[in-house]
Structures are given as structure tokens and as C-alpha cells.
Amino acid sequence: MDLEKHPAAPAPAAPAGLRASDADRDRIASILSDALAEGRLTADEHSERLDSLYAVKTVGELEVLVRDLPVPGAPQVPAAGAGHAVGPAAGAAFDTVVAVCSSSARKGRWRPGAHTRAVSVMGDISIDLTEAVFEQQVTEINVTCVLGNVEVLVPENVTLRGYGSGVLGNFEVRGEGRGESDPQAPVVIVRGFALLGNIEARPKPGARLVNLALKLQKRPEG
Questions:
Q1: What is the pLDDT of residue 18?
Q2: How far is it, in rounded angstroms, from Cα 193 to Cα 147?
Q3: Does residue 65 contact residue 52 with C-beta atoms inside 8 Å?
């Protein structure tokens, strides 16, 4: 009987060794942009990692760029006594719109989720809610914009709220409160951070939400 213990065969490095796709790079760019907005990375650190993002070849090399940063969906232990973070609750589902040296848009008859994350790095993003079907009372859009442009359009009779700032950039929400006359109107909250970029949210003249009654009929009776 051979009692000698042979070392187990090493597990294949399949995910880490795979060639990185455009979607993989967009995911890492989103994490880096969030870290910049939260103050985890300086502008120089973000720029350096962003340059590496397009130089590396594999998924494993991409993951090295964010190994010291929180990853969306991963459990995090809050510090004792710390307040609740602003934004979607941990584990909450969200849509993601990313434009890295490109453009991206959401428009027409679509159903926005309760939480949408928009990340623009030297790109343009348009989020048009004027024909959207709202399935929740509150829709929140979290925007990170670096050397780019993000525009959010809402119907005139939707309540619009904005919380954000810009560093050598612009964060502007126009027409806040115009929907307050309709207590049943959906509420759109835009939170954002612009670095050398522009974030603008405003009502689109002439566009009004007409399916509020249908939305209310779908609500369970309380």
C-alpha cells in the first residue's frame, strides 16, 4: 500500500486566467468610480488605476485593481456607531448604466428599477424617464461622473429631488418640487458626484406621466 501523500492537483485558475471582456472592464470601472466618489481613492489614484484597467489582459489582473475596495454585493461590516450609508440598502438590486469613453442611454417605454447606478468616465449617459413605467413610488439614481456628462429627464408631474456635489464640475437639479401638487406622483431622487464633469437632472417640458392610476391599482391594499 502506498502511504505516501501526494499533493492535490492545483485548482484551475479559470476565472482569473480568462481574457477580460468589455463587461469585465466596465464592472471594474464602476467600482473604481464609486471609490473615488466615496473618498476611498484620490483623483490621482483613480486615474492611475483607470490607466491600468485598459492595459491588463485577464480578469485576475483586473481584480487586483479593486482588491482593497468594497465590491457591490459583498457583505460589509459597518464600524461601531457608524450611521447608515446613503444609497440602496446592502443586497438591494439595482440597474447599472456605464459609459467609459463611450455613450449609453435608457429611454422610451422602459421600467426603471428602484435603484439605478450610472457611471460615466469620459462618456455621455442619458437617462430619460419621460415615457418610463414606474413600478415603485420612489426611484433613486446614483451618479458618478468623471470627465463626462450625465443627463436625467423626468416628466413634469414627477417629484424631483437632488443631493450631490461637484469638484471642478457641475451637479444641477432643476425643477425640484414641481410635482408636489400631486401627492400620488412618483418621486425621483438623483444623488451624484461630478469630478471635472456635468450632472444635470430636470423635467422635460410637455412630458407628463399619464399612467398614475394604473400604478395605484397594482398596489396591494393596506
A1: 86
A2: 11
A3: yes
What's the CA gap between 179 and 148, in Å, rounded? 29
pTM tops 0.70:
no
User: Residue 49's CB: how many other CB atoms inside 10 A?
Assistant: 20
| pLDDT of the residue at 136 | 83
Which residues of the chain register pLDDT less than 50? 1, 3, 5, 7-14, 75-92, 179-181, 211-216, 221-222
Contact 32, 69 (CB under 8 A): yes
Element (H, E) at 193: strand 187-195
Decide: helix, strand or coil at residue 113: coil
CB 164 within 8 A of CB 190: yes
- Give the per-residue pLDDT at 87: 45
Joined together, the cell numbers standing for residue 8 give 492535490
Phi-psi region of 108 (alpha: psi -120 to 50; beta: other; left: phi over 0): left
Residue type, 216: L
What is the pLDDT, as a whole number, of residue 120? Answer: 94
Place of cell 482569473: 16
Integer Cα distance of 206 and 208 in angstroms: 6
CB 53 within 8 A of CB 209: no
89 DSSP 8-state letter: P
